[in-house]
Structure formats: C-alpha cells, structure tokens
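Pipeline run #58 for the internal structure catalog. This entry was flagged by the ingest filter as a single-chain record with no existing model, so it goes straight to prediction. Upstream metadata was stripped on purpose; only the residue string is passed forward. Reviewer on rotation: M.T. Logging verbosity set to normal.
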Amino acid sequence: MLCAALLWSGLLVALPGDGPPSSQDLKTYDALRRKAGRDAPAQVKLALWCEAHGLDAQRLRHLAQAVLTDPGNATARGLLGQIHFEGRWESLDRVGERFGTDEQRSARLAEYNRRRDELEEKEVRLGRLCRRIERLNQATLGNARLVEGLEKVRGTKRHELARAHANLGIWCRANGLEGEALAHITTAIHFDPSREASWRHLGYVKRHGR
C-alpha cells in the first residue's frame, strides 16, 4: 500500500498544458473513462487520448493505474519517462545521475568502447577484403580454383569476426552490460549462423536441425 501511495503521489502532478480542456473534451473523457477497462493496455490507451486532448492530470492518473495493474508494462513506463535499468524502472534523470557517479561502470564502459573500436577496425578490414575479392572474382571468371580460394579466405574472416563478437558479448554480460552483450552475440550469429554457442547464449536450442 505504501508503494502504491508513493506512486500515486509522485505521478499525479499536472503538467502545464496549452490551455484548459474544453467542456466537450471533459464530457467525452468522462464517457470514455466509464467504458474503459481496468487492465493496463486500456488505461494506456485512455492516457494517450488524454494527452492528445490536453488532459495532463488525467493522463498521469491513468498511466499510474496502468503501472499499478502491471508494473512491468513497458509502454506505460516509457510514457512516464522511465527505462528499465539494472533490474529496476527509473527515470532518465536518475539513470543519468547513476551513470555520472558510478565510477566502476564508467570504467567498464571505457574498456568496452576500447574493445568495440578494435573490433570495428577488424570489420573495416573485412569490408575492404570482401570488395577486393569481389573485384578479383569479376576479373577471373572461369578460374574456379582461384574463386574457391578467395571465398575460403572470406569465410575464414567472417568466422573470426563472429568469434570476436561472441567473445565481446560474453565479456559484456560478465560486466553487467546486458544490452551490449545482446547486440554483439546477435552480430556474431549474423557473421556465422552456424555458431551453436552464440544461439545458446541468446536462449535458443536446436530442434529438428533449426
């Protein structure tokens, strides 16, 4: 009950609008409110209608109701200016403060950026290699052995990049950078869809060969 009371008191503050709502808007709102369900999606939908018609206090009230009904509702949380950060829903300002004061996290992010920059350099080199191979393919049509050798080189480089992205993703996960981990492990699969370890890190299992 205390959490609910704090949520209501923190959210039921009217934001400055463009002007007072019309009597017709208030009548329409009253009718919509009586018909709306108590579930989170219905409350979010009503909150969006209120926002479009300048009913700021009512908008916050319905977003608060949506969060009380479904604390994990990402749409309601987002409309309240909150994001899911390290297992909790927090305002963007609060997350910014935590980023600024968390020296350990700042150090981890600096190390991540260094590792990512090194990986991007490898991707740039692979891009250059692929373009060179494409030009050689066009210039050596009919030389199957050479084309096969070039394709083998390209495949090897893609496997190396897949492994590098997967390793960086595992490092990110071990250091609390879950979003970055997801991005790099997904990229690893893009470069090498046959990497079963990467699929497992994303929570997938092989079934019927897929």
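catalog note: The first helix runs from residue 2 to 11.
catalog note: The CA atoms of residues 24 and 30 lie 10 Å apart.
status: ready for reviewer M.T.
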